[in-house]
Specification:
This protein is an alpha+beta fold. 24% of the residues lie in helices and 37% in strands. It has one domain. The strands form two sheets. Strands 1, 3, 4, 5, 6, 9 and 10 form a seven-stranded mixed β-sheet that branches. The longest helix is centred in the C-terminal third of the chain and has 37 residues.
Length: 197
């Protein structure tokens, strides 16, 4: 079960050219901005800065299905390789070490898991109220890379922590908008009263 202190994002998954290998690879994150969801006609976006992974804890990252259950590969075992470059955070995973991992590879190859997601914690972020964009400046830790049956991508389902973050932002902006409208109505009433007198 996903944890409330972790966030999840989707990624592409590629199969190797070599039919004999059991490797899957792709980018867990890119640095392009993306819309997470739209509410009341407002796009709420996110972007990860290119330096966000510079100090991230990548020391023990696991590969499992849907962010839960059995571990099929692990960075400390040498079966998950992670890197970050100008494009984003990449991963290459060897699913050939156990029968269970090979079964997962077969499911991926059959197209049952065409996308992946990664779980992480945020160490530092900011929010631009004008563009409704959250910028993740520093990733604290990457926990896992996972093939998912339904990726947490924009327009579908968001992780609990991401929705909680933006729900707080939406509520704050709504309260400020209502307060500004209340003040404007009050100014109009005062203006009408002074014109009458």
């Amino acid at each position: 079960m996903p944890s409330k202190d972790r966030e999840y994002r989707n990624m592409e998954l590629r199969m190797p050219e070599d039919e004999e290998s059991y490797f899957v690879e792709g980018y867990a994150s890119t640095f392009e901005p993306y819309v997470l969801f739209t509410q009341d006609g407002v796009d709420y976006s996110e972007r990860i800065e290119p330096t966000a992974f510079d100090e991230a804890d990548l020391s023990d990252v696991v590969f499992r299905l849907d962010h839960s259950g059995r571990v099929y590969a692990r960075s400390t075992a040498g079966t998950v390789e992670l890197w970050h470059d100008d494009h984003g955070l990449g991963q290459r995973t060897n699913l050939g070490m156990t029968q269970g991992a090979r079964d997962v590879f077969a499911d991926i190859k059959a197209g049952n898991y065409p996308k992946m997601s990664f779980a992480f914690s945020v160490a530092e972020d900011s929010y631009d109220r004008e563009t409704h964009t959250r910028t993740i400046k520093r990733i604290g830790k990457v926990y896992d890379v996972s093939p998912v049956s339904f990726p947490a991508n924009p327009g579908t389902e968001l992780s609990v922590s991401t929705r909680d973050y933006f729900n707080g932002v939406i509520e704050m902006e709504k309260a400020e908008r209502l307060e500004a409208e209340r003040r404007e109505r009050q100014k109009q009433r005062i203006k009408i009263l002074t014109e009458v007198l």
